[in-house]
Each structure stands twice: as structure tokens, then as C-alpha cells.
């Protein structure tokens, strides 16, 4: 039986969404300093002397994570890395830079929703986007 087009389209939309979130934040928020608050958070956590280099490195890693999501290669591993990255970043931000966050509870809720979509994407069938 052939996969339903709606399921394939949903899975493709998730792939594009997930990859785009990472590429946007890596490229615009970090590398282009389009959201200076991101660099300020890195400064607070790692120190001003390494913040520029660290923010660039984080941005490159986020872009690579987005490209990995676009590739759909080893989606469960990709989802695990995304989950680890978001939990680590959120933990450090809440612990050391809470005053720089727009909304700490909002960040947590938004990232939980994002990770829910990431795991739906990761556990879905490669052909249909439907969980096995």
C-alpha cells in the first residue's frame, strides 16, 4: 500500500520546520548577531573574553544540526542530539542568565513543544511520517 500523501507532506513539513529553526538561530541569531541577546547569554555563561568565538562556534553547530535534520539521516540520533542541546542550553540559561531571557516559562514551553515535534519527526516512518 502506498503512503498517504498527507502523511508524507506532514513529515516533509516537519523536516523543513526543524531544520529551519536550527539554521535560522545559527545563521541569523548567532553568526549575524541578529538577536544580540543570544551573544549576551553566551557572555554571561562563558565569559566576555570567549563569547564571540563561542557564539560563532555555537552558531556553526546549530547550522550543522539543521542541515543534519534536512538530510533525515539517522533521525533518532539527530533528535537525541537536538534534545541534549536544548536541555543543556535551557538549563544553563535558566541557572546563569535568567534575567536575559524574555520569558523563562515561555522558553521552556516553546522548547518542549518543539522537541515534541522533533520526536514525532524522528519516530515517524521514513516513507509516511507515521509512527511505527
TrEMBL record:
Keyword Transmembrane tagged: yes
TM segment ranges: 12-29, 49-70, 77-96, 102-123
Keywords noted in UniProt: Membrane, Transmembrane, Transmembrane helix
Membrane among keywords: yes
InterPro entries: DoxX-like (IPR025695)
Domain of life, source organism: Bacteria
Protein name: DoxX-like family protein
Gene source species: Luteolibacter yonseiensis
